[in-house]
Predict the structure.
Amino acid sequence: MSSLVEIAGQLVAAHAANTKLTTEELILEISKVHAALQALEAGQVVEGGVEAKTALTVKEAFKKNEIFCMVCGKGGFKTLARHLSTSHGMKPSAYKKQFGIPSKQPLSAKSYSESRKQMALDRGLADNLALARQVRMANIEARKAVPAVPVKAKAPAKAKAPKAKASPAAKAPAKTKAPAKERVEK
């Protein structure tokens, strides 16, 4: 059977595989886990300590070619929005608020943003956007120039009275006809 120190070491090693930790942080983590395991073995209740502090700073998390998640410490992302929603159930605004990231800071690697910008310029998307804005403004100005003609409201249509159903005898043509007048020739 493994000793508590070995179990604590395995737990911390698994945690350190996903999170960058300094040597001091590793030693402190091992001692905390070992103490918690001893308390559990003695039958004591172990309460969750203070909420774990992120080992990454904002500058460390946002690199030129990749971005790191400050919640779990995973890195290698070009953008972070999908990871936050699928892995942590967070929205980007909540993530930024939790870690004090400025609201205008994009959650993407700088090189990724630059490459997308360059691709848009190469395709002429900026010119298309400027042209669309000009057309939109021209349409707005044209609407302002033409005074709106008030439309008179139509009088409400009169309701038609429902027709009374005719009896089947009334619908049948009369069998007897009056004698036709004879023409008089001159």
About this structure: The two ends are 138 Å apart (CA to CA). The first helix runs from residue 4 to 18. Helices lie at 4-18, 23-41, 58-61, 81-88, 92-99, 110-123, 125-145, 168-171.
